Amino acid sequence: MCIRDRIYRDHVIVCGLGKVGYRVVLELLRFGKDVVAIEVNEQGRFIEKVQALNVPIIIGDARRSENLRKAGVEYADSIVPATDDQLANLEIALDAREINPGIKVVIRMFDQELAAKIEKGFGIHTAFSSSALTAPIFAAAAMRLDVKHSFYIGDQLLNVSETVIQPDSQINGWDIARLERELDLSVLYYQSSEIHDIHPAPDLNLLPGDHILVLASIETLQHLNKLNGP
């Protein structure tokens, strides 16, 4: 998909450039992701700021399939419907999934009961808070980092994330101590077909199919993801 003579594939589409959408764009760019935005209001508060970041913006309603296609939804890795209307966000999410069944969807919701039903029924990741945590959580989820919980210690954002060791993983055979040392993370929980262990022994080796729950920064989770698979 080409916008402004640049080819976009495996990019993230952010729908809605309010406070949350703008912060999500900033977070994604900080982590090196290509972003395309859709915003219905051409006079929106953050339009010029996003344009200054060289992020292409489709002016139009993201609920319209043609605007999703203009943003390259067929080739996108993820989409973040982050408007102030949760039903519009859901409509965008479902349209995107219809066009691109493999796309990762991270949706902004305000009703937790409805969000739980959506997550269970459609496998769509949801986020609620309008606090400073929202944008990093959206960004982490859009990058396919399986973040379960995030919190700040001082100005450092830490994340609890689950990883399943893949057959072709570069960390296959590493022990817990090496993983923690080389990636600067903490392994909180380990699960295999035979073992379930909180704070596992440092000499425990990681094998394909093992599950680990780690505490790490988003940068470290990116590194772990790259080592663990394509």
What general outline do the C-alpha atoms trace?
A: elongated
How large, in whole angstroms, is the Cα Rg?
A: 19 Å
Mean pLDDT: 87
- Biggest sheet: strand arrangement: 5-4-3-6-7-8
The number of E-state strands comes to: 13
Quaternary status of these chains? Answer: single chain
Helix % is: 25-40%
Strand content: 25-35%
Structural class: alpha/beta
Biggest β-sheet, characterized?
A: 6 strands, parallel
The residue ranges in which pLDDT falls below 50 over 5 or more consecutive positions are: none
- Helical run tally: 8
Strand and helix order: EEEHEHEHEHEHEHEEHEEEH
The end-to-end distance, rounded to whole angstroms, is: 22 Å
What does this structure look like?
- The chain has 230 residues and is α/β, with parallel strands linked by helices.
- 33% of the residues lie in helices and 26% in strands.
- It has a 6-stranded parallel beta sheet, sandwiched between helices. Strands 9-10-13-11-12 form a 5-stranded antiparallel beta sheet, with helices on one face.
- The longest helix has 14 residues, at 86-99.
